[in-house]
Amino acid sequence: MNEPGPLRLSDLLEREVVDEDGRPLGRVADVRLVQDGPYVDGFGALLRVDGMVVARRSVGIRLGFHRRRVKGPWPLKPVLALLARRSLYVPWDQVVSWKDDPLRARRPEAGFPEGWTD
Amino acid sequence: MPPPQHDAGRVLYAGLHLLDRQLVDRDGRYAGKVDDLELCPGEDGNTLFVSAVLAGPGALARRLGARRLGAWLERALTHLGDPPANDLRILFNRISDVGDHVTLAANHDEMATFAAGRWVRDHIIHHIPGSRVRPPGPEERG
């Protein structure tokens, strides 16, 4: 967040997330995008940032080990899938301020959206 | 313009489905990789949209933490060609599909993301006997 110019995905990934009381929730492991933004000729609807996967350890999540269809290799699959189960999904409308570091968000009450493990 | 390949409303996870994916031009040739995404706020100032795909060694260096080196590389690479072939930001009107790879609605010679590959092709591979790489035309030099 120190560079001028538009925000980048890499400015969000691995950023610490805290709740409104300042208690740590984890780091941004991935960002969920939904294709329902403004229409662009040739591509269609733009991708909108819908929320963030927040976790203590992000590598297994970005490699997709939490998905049911990923069967191995053992023991990476069970270990990384277990770590992914401890992650949170923070919808973007629960983010209080994305310009601050750490990023501040309301503690999520609901779980992951449908399709997270597909 | 071809119609979009996917229904609106589909879900992608940026790190899992987009980062490091191959960029392929409209002829199916390699044109770099997705090294980062540019996010711009909408009219309400809070909703963020993916406005461009960023590619090239500068974007990758910034993503990996070498912010100063990355910014310098990005500035340097913009001087390798003339617009729009020096633009490392690929807006979505130049992207036709996002799937297993990202398909561009452009030729890889028009993309700055292929600048390094283009330089190697024109200055090294072209000089190797039997390489069958045609010499760069006057409009491609520089």
Overall description:
The complex is a heterodimer of chains A (118) and B (142). Chain A has helices at residues 9-12, 59-62, 76-85; strands at residues 7-8, 16-18, 24-40, 44-55, 88-91, 95-97, 103-105. Chain A is an alpha+beta fold and 118 residues long. In chain A, strands 5-4-3-2-7-6 form a six-stranded mixed beta sheet. In chain A, a hairpin with a 5-residue loop joins β6 (95-97) and β7. Chain A starts with 6 loop residues before the first strand and ends in a 13-residue tail after the last strand. Helices cover 23% and strands 23% of the residues of chain B. Chain B has four helices and eight strands, in the order βαββββααβββα. In chain B, the strands form two sheets. In chain B, strands 3-2-8-7 form a four-stranded mixed beta sheet, with no helix packed on it. Chain B has a three-stranded antiparallel beta sheet with strand order 4-5-6. The radius of gyration of chain B is 16 Å and the shape is globular. Classes of the chains: A alpha+beta (118), B alpha+beta (142). Chains A and B meet through β1, α1, β3 and β4 of A and β1, α1, β4, β5 and α2 of B. β3 of chain A pairs antiparallel with β1 of chain B.
Topology:
The complex is a heterodimer of chains A (118) and B (142).
Chain A: E1 7-8, H1 9-12, E2 16-18, E3 24-40, E4 44-55, H2 59-62, H3 76-85, E5 88-91, E6 95-97, E7 103-105
Parallel strand pairs in A: 2-7
Antiparallel strand pairs in A: 2-3, 3-4, 4-5, 6-7
Chain B: E1 11-13, H1 14-18, E2 22-24, E3 30-33, E4 36-41, E5 48-54, H2 57-63, H3 67-77, E6 89-91, E7 95-98, E8 102-104, H4 115-123
Parallel strand pairs in B: 2-8
Antiparallel strand pairs in B: 2-3, 4-5, 5-6, 7-8
Strand order of the largest sheet of chain A: 5-4-3-2-7-6
How much helix is in the residues of chain B?
Answer: 10-25%
Oligomer kind: heterodimer
Compute the average pLDDT of chain A.
Answer: 85
Strand content of chain B: 15-25%
Helix-strand category of chain A:
alpha+beta
Tell me the total number of β-strands of chain B. Answer: 8
SSE order of chain A:
EHEEEHHEEE
Distance between the first and last residues' Cα of chain B: 31 Å
**Largest sheet, strands/sense/barrel of chain A:** 6 strands, mixed
Radius of gyration of chain A: 15 Å
> How far is it from the N-terminal to the C-terminal residue of chain A, by CA?
32 Å
Q: Structural class from helices and strands of chain B?
A: alpha+beta
Largest interface: A-B, 41 and 43 residues
Enumerate how many helices of chain B there are, as a single number.
Answer: 4
List low-confidence stretches of chain B. 1-5
